[in-house]
Amino acid sequence: MPFSVQTAVRRICSVLVLMCLSTHAVIADVVVTRLANGGVILSDGQSTSVMIDGMVTTPFSIYAGLPEADREQFFKAVGPFLGIDLALVSHQHHQHNQPDTACAFLRNSPDTVFASSSQVIDLVREKCREYVTTSKNVQIIDPQYDQPVTLHAGDATVTVFLLSHGHGRNSTIKNFGHLVEIGGMKVLHVGGADMDPADFARAGVDKMNIDVALVPFLFYQPGPGPAILGSYLNAPHQIAEQIPPDEMPEVKAYMQVEYPQVLILENALEQVRFTAPAPPVQ
Hints:
The protein is of the alpha/beta class.
């Protein structure tokens, strides 16, 4: 069979395309975008985005909201807020979910599935009853310690499970942990979890093989938190979050000495990308 230069070039190009496709398939990336307080967007950088505790735009108590320019993008569901497949909320406290904000976003992002506890959904329904009661994308979930809930969005799988919010009056507040498998990695968001090692053990967090842990800053302070970090949240990558703006300089100085390997995303919409080791090409 004749073997022309043109044939050789075509074959080389075909091999290069296949190599690029193979490389593209095995690269594992997760992009974490910081929002307000403990809010984040988790993306594979390609087709899937999951937002957790992101329905917060207004400062509350000592915690930050979003800057004005970022709020405008949020309410229009554009920029980094475009194409959110799944929006999740850990618990009902206002620094983790603001019902009027949730209503405004969901109306402008009609394809976003919104899933949380009945406590959270009930508060949102007070602000936009018609939307919540008629939309097929609003889902009440009720995971138990022995029965987590699994959600799927695009290429992401999310395991939603109970983590205690504390004792006394906080014991009645349902708080969800979210284990998000996206971009070939496992990212854990604990919401407003109580610093109770027994509760983390009951939830089975030590068996989750976490790649990225999003951890409230209080866990890094002296007390019960460091023991939980060592036994349950000792992921290769950690981000300290839920840091009040007025305390940021002091917290950064402390973390640089005590936990220099832990990342802090200081500003809204600041991003970090994590890459997992690529599996061998089959």
